[in-house]
Amino acid sequence: MWRSWKSHLAMALVSLAAAVYVCQGLWRAPYRHVVADNVSDQGQFEWMMSYGVYLLQHMSNPFFTTLLNAPRGVNLAMNTSSTFYAVLFAPLTHFAGPQVTFVTILTLNLAGSAFVWYLFLRRWLVRSGLAAAVGGLLFGFSPGLVSHANGHLNWTSGWMVGIVAWWVLKLPEKGHRVRNGVVLGLLCTMGFSVAAEALFFCALACALFLAVWALSKPGLRAAKESAGRVLVSLGVTAAVAGALLSWPLYMHFNGPLKFTGTGFKMRFYSEDLVSYVAFPLRSVAGLFGWGADLAPNATEATSFLGAPLVLLFAVALGLLWRRSSPERRVTLRALSVVGLFFFLLSLGPRLRFMGEEHSDTPLLYALFVDVPLFDSALPVRYTLVVVVIFAIVLALLVDEFVTRGLLAKLTVGVLVVAALAPIAPLPLRTLERAPEPEFIASGTWQDYVTGDGVMTSLPLSIDVAVDSMRWQAYTMARGGDAQFRIPAGYFLGPQDYLETGRHLVGRVGAPDRPTDKLFYKAARWGQVPRITNLDRAQARIDFRYWKLQAIFLPAEVTGPKGPLNRDALLRLTTELLGEPEQVQDVLVWRITPGVDPVDQTEEG
């Protein structure tokens, strides 16, 4: 027993050390550094963590808010609100800030994913702690999870999937029908909040695995013997999860500002067939220039397992099949079917090969594009289930040979190292972002808006500029009754606010208004057109719509790859509203809705 606990402790420490290594750039300066490949998603998750403090303090709606996108609001149930994390880590967010909460959760997610899958493998599939460790580390620090560490607290939560799958396998136990059902129901409720899309993948994979397994002779015998217990437990699970998730599910499927599907293009977010055998850019192989740029973006590089690992997986599957008992072959068959099914789904509705889409070659996912739940999932993310299958098969291979002769052990060891070393991750890239203005940190902003008033920094928050959300988030995290609202924001919402918007695919951010487009073009590309009184009249309309009371411009403005064009924003806003007021470290323009900006005499 003590030996097992020593092994568990060693694995936990190794996993934590590896996670700190990957996230080291954020830990060096959590208040200034941001993941370089996904600045905006980190800002969005920091907002979500801060909303947990606001939620507990004000007992507000966890699934809808008007703090963003004033005056319309945002349906948080249709976004990655991560209420579980936000509430659980609210004390840390309040005392240390959402920046520290973000990197803490990210680090624990990577370490926890490796450790939980190590425990899963050791409990259900392998005898050797070394074999379980190999599988756990492969999944927890796979290119896919490390890629998602660029801003995604939801998709790095692989530990959640492991725990849910663990409890699914416990359902046939005798004498614990109600307990197992209640626990699984609570886990599903937690999983829905942590990563609803991943929970759907887990449920789909478990159902497919059990279906294939049950169709075999050994599986059919076991299914007949345990069917009653499993059905009772699943009934309890449905009752518990249904009761606890009734409100968020209603908000998701029928709540205000709902939309259909997702705000991202599925055909773009699909795996390139070659990416499975390619190496990641941020890996040891990538360090030597062997990485391939075939992913939709740096956060969705979910495959990139490398040719050596893919080849080893195929060889391992063949060796294990030859050496396995009939019962183990059933497991291998079920794992293979699940892996193949999710591999095909990950390729998306049309074949992508070497960066080119072949629109005349439809694939399996084309049948599921409009199917509920499938229509809200990005194909590229199905790869993470394939990675789980790779981790399991590799663990089984090591387990099979770890007790063999020295030559066999050395051979397998060399092959495993050769397959895994090239895809070993490098630390996340980071860059500096704009520091919080003293105007916000000191609370001076309260002199410029009424209670619950609307204020924004420039440009308005969008997917490539989330500073305004950050300043609001840091204010929420500190607590207190005073809080401002902001127009627009980085979120998923409907195409429009009519009934038609509920039936169209979603979009990123609020529907465009002319004035925020002016601010965006100035910030992103430095475009400052000649401002006319017609532009000022439109600005009055937009300011009145937002109920905007103040605009401020900090000394630095963060963009997706570095600073945005502050000088262009200053020129544009001065043309609209006149000279600003210098307040501490920001420039402020007060807005009287319906009055500002005032028309100016135009020449010629």
UniProtKB/TrEMBL annotation:
The chain crosses the membrane at residues 102-121, 128-146, 152-169, 181-210, 230-253, 273-292, 304-321, 330-348, 380-398, 410-428. Keywords: Membrane, Transmembrane, Transmembrane helix. Residues 53-394 form the DUF6311 domain. The keyword Transmembrane applies. Signal peptide: none annotated. It comes from the Bacteria. InterPro entries: DUF6311. This is DUF2079 domain-containing protein. The lineage of its organism: Bacteria, Bacillati, Actinomycetota, Actinomycetes, Micromonosporales.
